[in-house]
Amino acid sequence: MTLDLSGRIALVTGASRGIGYFVAKELAAAGAHVIAVARTVGGLEELDDEIRADGKGTTTLVPLDLADLPGIDRLGGQIHERWGKLDILVANAGVLGTISPIGHVEAKVFDRVMAINVTSTWRLMRSVDPLLKASDAGRALILSSGAAHSARAYWGPYAASKAAVEALARSWADEAKNMTLRVNSVNPGATRTAMRAQAMPGEDPATLPHPSEVGKAIAALADPARMETGLIYDVPKKRFLAYRMPE
Ligand code: NDP
Questions:
Q1: d(CA 73, CA 77)
Q2: Which of 83, 89, 74, 113 is nearest to 15 (CA)?
Q3: I need a labelling partner for 62 at 20 to 30 A (CA). Which of 71, 120, 123, 209 fits?
Q4: What DSSP state is assigned to residue 134?
Q5: Rounded to two decimals, what is the model's pTM?
Q6: Distance 247 CA to ligand 1 centre (A)
Q7: Overall CATH class of domain 9-241
Q8: 184: how many CB neighbours lie within 10 A of its CB?
Q9: How far apart, in whole angstroms, are the C-alpha atoms of residue 24 and residue 62?
Q10: Domain coordinates of the chain in residue numbers?
Q11: Helix, strand, coil in percent for the chain, rounding step 5
Q12: What is the pLDDT of residues 65-99, one digit of tens each?
């Protein structure tokens, strides 16, 4: 079925490149108005140009460093003033930090990974929570990673940050389980982006899915008809997983 998001308002962080760029493009192609957030104005403008050329959705570009926590609060306030609601949140922006043994991780790198991947994501959740609840079918998608569960050697800070946002997403989903808001985490799987190249410099990027493929799969989860909540959507497996401890 064709995804129809006409009239819906979507906020996508990390929309200047990589996965977020293509999620934003797909949401716009389905008719959504996309509020695109990142620091790199050139990337946001390129997105805007492509969306205009497609002639379907529209954008509002928000150059913002997500380390600016009061800036995130102001963004929520501006969305409230202009639209009074938010239909779709894609909390996608993230940083890798460095791939190295835990004993070698610099404190400032650890702090940065936690600041952007966890604290900023929580702040964004807090800022838009009432706006998503004001929608008739709020959909929140929180980008995680298989690293949260595999917890492989040398991926410690990044893995911990993704485990943390998954826990936040699941708690948020549970709080909203009797409302129309649905909250899920997403594992995009290895994708051909700048972050993946930083993590695996020896890998041939051509062996990985292009972010446009992954973006399409993620955008489809914003469909108001999808009712799953509190789960993790695994893009490579094409299905929802429930990572729950046995009762
Ligand atoms: P990229 O590095 O290609 O893009 C990251 C995006 O996040 C950019 O748009 C960047 O924008 C934005 N961003 C980073 N820091 C900030 C900041 N301080 N303020 C605002 N925006 C920021 O990453 P990917 O597209 O690969 O990753 C997207 C998500 O998917 C991440 O959460 C990542 O952890 C997750 N993921 C990716 C995988 C992969 O293989 N690629 C695998 C598993 C998970 P700008 O620099 O312009 O601010």
A1: 6
A2: 89
A3: 209
A4: T
A5: 0.98
A6: 35
A7: alpha beta
A8: 22
A9: 13
A10: 9-241
A11: 45, 15, 40
A12: 999 999 999 999 999 999 999 999 999 999 999 99
CA distances from 94 to 25, 130, 167 (A): 18, 23, 16
Predicted pLDDT at 244: 65
How many alpha carbons lie under 13 Å from residue 22 in its C-beta half-sphere? 17
Rounded to the nearest angstrom, the distance between the alpha carbon of 14 and the centre of ligand 1 is: 5
Taking CA atoms only, the protein residue closest to ligand 1 atom 36 is 145
Residue whose Cα lies nearest atom 10 of ligand 1: it is 14
Question: What pLDDT score was predicted for residue 245?
Answer: 65
Per-residue pLDDT, 247: 62
Known catalytic residue at 158:
yes
> Which ligand 1 atom is the nearest neighbour of the CA of 195?
2
In the 3-class helix/strand/coil scheme, how is 74-96 assigned residue by residue? HHHHHHHHHHCCCCEEEECCCCC
Residue ranges in the chain modelled with pLDDT below 70: 1, 244-247
Its sign, for the CA torsion 63, 68, 69, 70, is negative
Alpha carbon of 50 to ligand 1 centroid (Å)? 20
